[in-house]
Design goal:
With about 190 residues, the chain is of the alpha+beta class. Helix content is about 30%, strand content about 20%. The structure holds flavin mononucleotide.
């Protein structure tokens, strides 16, 4: 698969094969991929907390919020929940440059997961008090982003932007998840 095809397949996934859990070795492989990503000043200040199955995984799931745009869906049902999480930690006093590192690491792991048939959802909507407590985040660090993973169960597709410009994603009657993306002509600000 070339990179554009991989990027197209790497849609956010929110329903998983919960009976086919990812293990710690799978999560370590994802962090191996993130380890090779660019880092501002090559400072590599990010750290990663890995959560595979079990009680901590269930507790962490309950502290995350999924698909705010799907108003009639409260998040993945039992049997379709993520089987693993990676929390990306950044220094509490981290500057904007570190935020770029977080995004690069997150997307690297999402693409890596997709390459193995796994799904990923980046989650910034989580309990910012309870999650650091649950994961015993080292002092001086904060949770920047939580990524949920599992074997992908749902079909996701890119859609053209609707005429009204609404960028909200939606799910059709067959349960397929559609994600509108702007076209190239809208994105290119200038050509010189
Ligand atoms: C920084 C960031 C934070 C996100 N936080 C959440 C979240 O808290 N809950 C959620 O369900 N999806 C979250 N998402 C997923 C977005 O909703 C998703 O990327 C968007 O709908 C576009 O879909 P796509 O990833 O398939 O292109 C987040 C994505 C990013 C990049």
């Amino acid at each position: 698969m070339d990179l554009k095809a991989l990027a197209e397949a790497a849609r956010t996934c929110r329903r998983f094969e919960e009976d086919r859990p990812l293990g710690m070795a799978d999560l370590e492989w994802l962090v191996e991929c993130a380890r090779l990503a660019p880092s501002a000043r090559n400072a590599q200040t990010l750290r990663f907390t890995l959560v595979s199955q079990g009680e901590t995984c269930q507790k962490l799931f309950s502290l995350t919020r999924w698909a705010g745009a799907l108003k009639d869906w409260g998040g993945p049902h039992p049997g379709e929940r993520p089987t693993a999480f990676i929390a990306i930690l950044m220094p509490e006093n981290g500057n904007n440059l570190v935020c770029f590192d977080v995004g690069i690491a997150a997307q690297t792991m999402q693409l890596a997961a997709t390459s193995r048939g796994w799904g990923c959802c980046m989650i910034q909507s989580f309990d910012r008090t309870a999650v650091p407590e649950l994961l015993k985040i080292p002092s001086g660090m904060q949770v920047a982003l939580v990524l949920g993973f599992g074997v992908a169960k749902e079909t996701r597709r890119i859609a053209p932007m609707p005429a009204d410009g609404s960028f909200a994603y939606w799910r059709d009657a067959q349960g397929v998840h559609h994600v509108p993306k702007r076209g190239l002509s809208e994105l290119v600000a200038a050509r010189y």
